[in-house]
Amino acid sequence: MLNLDQNTITQEALRRLEGCTDPRFKEIMTSLTKHIHDFAREVKLTEAEWMQGLEFLTAVGQKCDDKRQEFILLSDTLGLSMLVVALNHQKPAGCTEATVFGPFHTDAASTFKNGDDLALGAAGEPAFISGTVRGLDGKPVPNALIDVWQADGDGIYDVQYTDKDGALFARGRLNADKDGKYWFKSILPEFYSIPVDGPVGKMMKHAARHPYRPAHLHFMIQAPGYEKLVTHVFRKDDQYLESDAVFGVRSSLISDWVKKDATAMPDGSKMDKPFYTLDFDFVLNAAKA
Ligand code: BEZ
Ligand code: FE
């Protein structure tokens, strides 16, 4: 078709999808085309602005490598990651809510036993974390695989350091016991800044947004017959709970990390300085049939 104008071009772009035989791809591309054309019309996008947009997306891609995922960060800071979580994890009341995965998980984490110290020397105040994994019927889920990861007390994830020979700390995997109980030692999470040394950081600054995430510990929990749970446990009273840079806070995930005097940890191990305890139970949703 010739002589397309600022309105008819959308219909023609949609018509070019008519031969697509993948119905879901066709649905997504149709909607994306409509919305992106509407967006350009709505803001009366100039050529210079679109070039700036393309340069921004190019810089986002160029910032990505095996350690840095700037596209996840972009999705997170636009609220798109949390929107997709909300759309895909509507669970019955009583189930532990899901939140963003984030860019700092690694499959290379070591495996631990209940009671082990996952901190492996990470900076931070000591903490003892425990709880039970259950199903919605209240029964314990035995042997669930629990993957945890967190920033250190300086607000940096192990994978962000460039001067530690790739050493991993403040993360690991362990299995709940036959009664669904888990317990391990690590450090108290602190609020931190998402990485701001790339194009997403520049975008946040230009938008006059702060880059902070409230203190949290990441959990990913998997067990046969249950939906995989990706979530965090936050610290109550954190100043950034209401304004998380990636929109990830659910009030049901905010918990009290209780300060204890130096004596012994709940498993009897000696502790010669004050430490924190977190007691948090997880309720898994049954897997979809
Ligand atoms: C995180 O919690 O690790 C995270 C999530 C989204 C963006 C950056 C970091
Ligand atoms: Fe995090």
Please give a quick description of this structure.
With 289 residues, the protein is α/β, with parallel strands linked by helices.
What's the helix-strand series? Answer: HHHHHEEEEEHEEEEEEE
Contiguous uncertain segments of 5+ residues: none
How helical, in percent, are the residues? Answer: 10-25%
The biggest beta sheet reads:
5 strands, mixed
The tally of helices reads 6
CATH topology of the largest domain: Protocatechuate 3,4-Dioxygenase, subunit A
Number of strands: 12
CATH class of the largest domain: Mainly Beta
General description of the model:
This protein is of the alpha/beta class and 289 residues long. The strands form 3 sheets. Strands 1, 4, 10, 11 and 12 form a 5-stranded mixed β-sheet that branches. A 5-stranded mixed β-sheet has the order 3-2-7-8-9, with no helix packed on it. It contains 6 helices and 12 strands. The chain has helices at residues 8-15, 23-43, 47-63, 70-77, 80-88, 199-206; strands spanning 126-135, 145-149, 171-175, 181-187, 192-193, 212-213, 216-222, 229-235, 254-255, 258-260, 275-279, 282-284. It has 2 domains: 9-65, no CATH class; 71-284, Protocatechuate 3,4-Dioxygenase, subunit A (Sandwich). The termini are far apart. The mean pLDDT is 96. The chain is 25% helix and 20% strand. It is globular. Benzoic acid is lined by residues 73, 76, 100, 102-104, 194, 213, 246.
